[in-house]
Design brief:
By secondary structure, this protein is of the alpha+beta class. The chain has one domain: Bira Bifunctional Protein, Domain 2 (BirA Bifunctional Protein, domain 2, 2-Layer Sandwich). The chain has 9 helices and 13 strands. The strands form 3 sheets. It has an 8-stranded mixed beta sheet with strand order 1-5-6-13-12-11-8-7, with helices on both faces. A 3-stranded antiparallel beta sheet has the order 2-4-3, with no helix packed on it. The chain has a two-stranded antiparallel sheet with strand order 9-10. The protein is globular and about 60 Å long.
């Protein structure tokens, strides 16, 4: 098809929505400026991929003038590792609004490239950070903010409410039966895989109906970068924010122990090998930064595009971004 005939050069978002998106980006920056949080800018091309088995890093290969590969890198899936290095260097409260790339993600709520708002607060509890996440969400939702109440529930509570299962006490057989009822076919999943499946298929899509709903106290095994709850080491100091069945944010009371972090990276690596996924060495610069000393802090990543969807009552992510992966 000739250039004159094809129409996929056009943006999928309307001019009005692109202007609205720009206004909300400005509002987010003013929010942090008013609170004395410093904006930073870290590399999108990094030397180490994420370890999480549920997130897939995109590759970048640099070549010389003859087209021969000279360096293999990755596109970051989050600015987290680099931002923690800045915190260890003494920068204090920081935030970043940036594009990130995650492989194998496309759908109504997913595009391989999307925008994250990520920030870290020194000495803050997870509860204080949840308050600030809600404040930012409501500031960006604008008039729609009044449509949503507030709710905070534990991970155990949402499993009990929606599936009548205690995620910490239920047997593997009980979880497997619930997964089969949800349409899962197979018998090789471990406990975490079953819990992740049930949360993503049965619970998440019905969370936060008419409310900004924080779910906290995730299993320790599902929070590779978070501290454990001192009151219950089976749970991690991690939360997610849901609204109208959409996951908007993921926050941690950040793990600062370099030895524990290395052990968790090794656990992730073993799981990746078991699942047949690519495995690469951990980010040694991050581990060195943790060893040098990371300030006590809590941090969160919020999906900006999804929040714009919520503010504009959009049904699909391509309505609020100019060019999804098919038109990039």
């Amino acid at each position: 098809m000739s250039g004159a005939q094809r129409q996929d050069w056009r943006a999928t978002a309307t001019p009005r929505l692109l202007r609205r998106r720009a206004a909300l980006l400005g509002a987010a920056r003013r929010f942090f400026a008013d609170r004395g949080v410093l904006e930073v800018d870290t590399p999108v091309v990094v030397n180490a991929p994420v370890s999480d088995v549920h997130i897939h890093s995109a590759h970048v290969t640099f070549t010389d003038g003859a087209g021969q590969p000279v360096q293999h890198c990755y596109l970051h899936t989050s600015p987290e590792y680099a931002m923690k290095r800045l915190i260890a260097g003494g920068l204090g409260d920081i935030y970043q609004i940036c594009h990130v790339v995650r492989g194998l993600e496309r759908g109504r709520l997913h595009n391989a490239e999307f925008t994250l708002v990520e920030w870290y607060r020194m000495g803050w509890t997870l509860e204080a950070l949840m308050d600030e996440v809600e404040a930012l969400a409501r500031a960006l939702l604008g008039p729609r903010s009044t449509d949503f109440a507030s709710a905070r529930l534990t991970y155990r509570e949402v499993f009990r409410q929606h599936l009548d299962i205690d995620p910490f006490e239920a047997s593997l057989a009980t979880l497997a039966a619930a997964a089969r009822a949800a349409g899962f076919v197979g018998d090789s999943a471990d406990r975490d895989e079953l819990l992740e499946l049930l949360m993503s298929v049965r619970i998440g899509p019905v969370l936060g109906r008419g409310a900004l709903t924080f779910v906290h106290g995730y299993p320790a095994s599902q929070a590779a970068l978070a501290r454990l709850d001192p009151a219950d080491p089976r749970a991690a100091q991690r939360f997610e924010l849901y609204c109208n069945g959409i996951e908007l944010a993921n926050g941690f009371h950040e793990l600062a122990d370099a030895h524990e972090q290395r052990a968790r990276f090794e656990q992730d690596g073993a799981a990746r090998v078991r699942l047949g996924l690519e495995h690469a060495p951990p980010d040694e610069r991050l581990l060195a930064a943790l060893a040098a000393g990371l300030a006590d802090c809590s941090g969160v990543a919020l999906g900006f595009d999804r929040l714009v969807m919520l503010a504009e009552d959009a049904a699909r992510i391509e309505e609020v971004i100019p060019f999804p992966i098919e038109r990039a």
